Each structure stands twice: as C-alpha cells, then as structure tokens.
Amino acid sequence: MEGRRSAAKAAAIAALAALSGAGFACIPTPGGNGGTGTSATGQPSADARPSDPSRADGAAPGGADPEANGQARPQEGRADPPDEADPFWRVATDGEAWATPTIRGGVAYVGSDDRRLYAIDVETGQSRFTAGPFPTPLRSTPAVDGERLVLIDQGGRIHAVALDGQTLWHLDVGAVGSAALDADGVFIVTDGGDLLRLRAEDGRELWRLSLGAKRPPEAGPQASSGRVVIATGDGELHGVDAASGDRRWRRSVGQGAALRLVGGTVYASGGGFLWALRGADGAERWRLGVSDFRAAPPAVRGDVVV
User: Fold this and answer.
1) 3-state secondary structure labels for all residues of 99-156
2) Cβ-contact 228, 242 below 8 angstroms
3) What does the pLDDT look like over 56-74, one tens digit per residue?
4) Whether 95 contacts 114, CB under 8 Å
C-alpha cells in the first residue's frame, strides 16, 4: 500500500496548486491516488473528504430527484464532473502563493506573497528550508541547478540562494519575469528591454544586449544548448548566442508570443499559430493554426506539443 502511495505521489508531478487562502498543496493527477489525502506526517488530512456516490440514472444519493431540488439533471452522453481531488499534503504560508514551483531532486521550490521561499520535500510535505523574508513578494518561477537557485522578486531584484537556504548574492537590475539558469550562467531580461548574462557564482554581469523592442518582454528568457531565446512584447523572438551575447536571429510570430525552448527547437505560440522553429537560426520547421487568443507557453513532452 505504501509503495502504491509513493508511486501515486510521483505520478502527481507534485502539482503544487495555489489555495484559495494562503499556501499550496500536492494534488494527485488523474490516474493517481484519488482517495484520502495525507498530511505532512502521512496521516489522513483533517479536511479529506470521501467522494459522494453517484447513480447511473442521474438520481441523487438516497433516490432523491435532483430536479426536485432545483439541480440540473446530468445530460445523457456527457460525463459527470470529476470529484474534487484530495491533496497528499498542504503547506500553509502567511501570504498567497501565486508562483509556479520548480521541482528538482525530489524537492519543490516555490515563492509566496509573504516574501519567503519554501523548499518542500515532494514525498512528505516536510520543509527542507525556508528562506527570507525578501524585499518584496516572490511570484517568479525559481531556476534551479545542482548548486543554487535563482529567482526574481516583484521589485525586480534577482536573488541567488544556495540549496541549503543561504543567500549567495542579490542584484537590483529591474528584472522581469523569471530567470533562466544553465551551464552558461544566469539569464534575465530587464524592464528596459535588455537581455543580460550573469555569472552564476557571484552575479557579475558578463554581457548585455539591447533587444530594441517597441514593447519590452513580459516573461523571462529560455536557455538551452548554448542558446538563449526571448519573446518581446511586440511579438518578436530573438535567438542569442549564450557565450558571446551575439544575436543570431530575429523573427516575428505575432502578438502574444510565448515560447518554450527544448533542445534545439523553439516552440512558440503567437499570432494565432503554434510554431516550431530551429533554435540555431530561427528557420520554420512547421506551424499550426490554433487560436486568435493570447496563448501560454507550449508544453512539450517527448513528441507531443500542447
């Protein structure tokens, strides 16, 4: 039983969801353990609720007619709404948690409006460390490598934190969005439209590139395989050499541009299309008409792009 529960937690991808109050929780994904939730101690959580029984004929439990109580009868051929998932564990904070977590090595790293950074064991919900308070709330997604994590607060300051919670360095550069971190260093974009590479060890600026955009970026850059790609607010993608800071290509994909860099391919949404571009030179590999609405960055797993 415990082995199945552990597997279910892994299958949940430690989906840390912002709660209606202050905090976050580990939520099972469909196909995971949908039963009783667990607290950080592994015991059933106090607010875990069993699923209500359902009837195939659409009647409410106990034989009552839902229409008699002003409730809509389930429509034939349509699935009933899923039961609310019970979390494996919950963590309370002193401020709302808007940030998207980063999970690495079995630990989830996430910031909160209480100006603190939380490192939480995905398996147990136990705290590894809490860092802060920082000057302003933390709503960016932390970038993590094997030695440190980097995150940006709402005041535009970038902070590097060791994986034991100790602050390594900080820099006030007017950064926006989230940072990217890889073997080439830390990459951030400023509210003035500059792309920067910083040395991960101490935050020293290594190069700065003015993107020349009419509207500065609203999200941070992506870095992979010696390349950095950034989307500007006016719908352009810029491909930059990570080592030198030289711009290799520039391409317009339309308003609402958002991107994901995976290996040597840039997947982007913008202008009503889903794009796949070659990371080396921005050449189009394919495009697919999807929507005229502003899209989120594509999600990529294996050969599937969503």
Assistant:
1) CCCEEECCEEEEECCCCCEEEEECCCCCEEEEECCCCCCECCCCEECCCEEEEEECCC
2) yes
3) 333 444 444 444 444 444 4
4) yes
Which of 125-155 are b and which e, b meaning 16 or more Cβ less than 10 Å from the residue's Cβ?
beebbbbbebeebbbbbbbbeeebbbbbbbe
Rg (CA), the chain: 22
Which residue, among 197, 158, 201, 205, has the nearest Cα to 177 in the 3D structure? 158
Q: How many CB atoms lie within 10 A of CB 264?
A: 13
Note the pTM of the prediction, 2 decimals: 0.74
pLDDT, tens digit (0-9, with 9 covering 90-100), for 22-35: 666 665 655 544 43
Question: Is residue 5 scored above 60 in pLDDT?
Answer: no
Q: What is the DSSP letter of 59?
A: P
Two structure tokens written together for 59: 């009647």
Q: What does the pLDDT look like over 285-297, one tens digit per residue?
A: 999 888 655 557 7
Please answer whether residues 287 and 276 qualify as being in contact, where contact means their C-beta atoms are separated by less than 8 angstroms.
yes
